[in-house]
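Q: How would the structure tokens look for this protein?
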Amino acid sequence: MLIQKPADLKYSDVTPKSVYTNRREFLAAMGISAGALLLPSEAGAMKLDIAAKSPYSTTEPINSIKDVTHYNNFYEFGTAKNEPAEYAKNYRTSPWTVSVEGLVEKPQKFDLASLMKLAPMEERIYRHRCVEAWSIVVPWAGYSLHELLKAVQPTAKAKYVAFQSDYDPKQMPHAYGIQFPYVEGLRLDEAMHPLTLLTFGMYGETLPNQDGAPVRLIVPWKYGFKGIKSIVKIKLVEKQPPTTWNMMASNEYGFYSNVNPHVDHPRWSQGTERRLGELFKRQTVMFNGYEKEVASLYSGMDLKKNY
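A: Here is the predicted structure in token form.
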């Protein structure tokens, strides 16, 4: 198998034209022109103006954008991996607002342009591990969630951060299988960790609909379902918030959902994984390879009990 390194491959070489369409429409509707935030790419898509490459990035080869945009979990647009790319094509992501509320000193409702300008964006090449035992490496673009949380100033009572996805039955007629809207949560210290990324793009460009446009979360040391897509609400709370998959099957999906090869899913092993596009399996590593950065968050915890 020929694997090209990131330096050998331009994102525009592998990005399907269909990915671009809705992004042009939502940017036009928002009135965003090429400039500080976004620049036109050669293929006609909108390219993010990324301030820097992140030191948190892995040096592992990235997956192709075709892989990452055509093998998705996004139950609002179908349960099969190929369905979100088809059923999310016409999903409208403008106008868009994200409400940040709850136990904060400065609750705010951000439009997308304001949210994107809150902090300089970085490109971070993260490993991404799905609970179904497959993995990918993706160049995400965004900034640490703590930048947003600092702006709204959590109160002393805030202990957790709850997230909610958009849910529009008219735009999501293929949504079934779980309770909607999709909700997720993190402990406040997890949310404040610099690795936790508020994400607006991938491969240097704005997010495709099937990958969580226009804004999603990436928590690289946790299983992928913790990376909630199409966020409309963020709420600071005192008690552990409910999360969708934990409500659906608490014996299979815990609140923490840290990548841990020693805690198997009841229906399959988590000890190995298959990188999307590769033939052979590889060993799963603790915290998805981010143990040095995040293990201290769980000092003294039983990570088999708190799965």
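The first strand starts at residue 38 and ends at 40.

Confidence is low (pLDDT under 50) at residues 1-45.

Upvote if useful.
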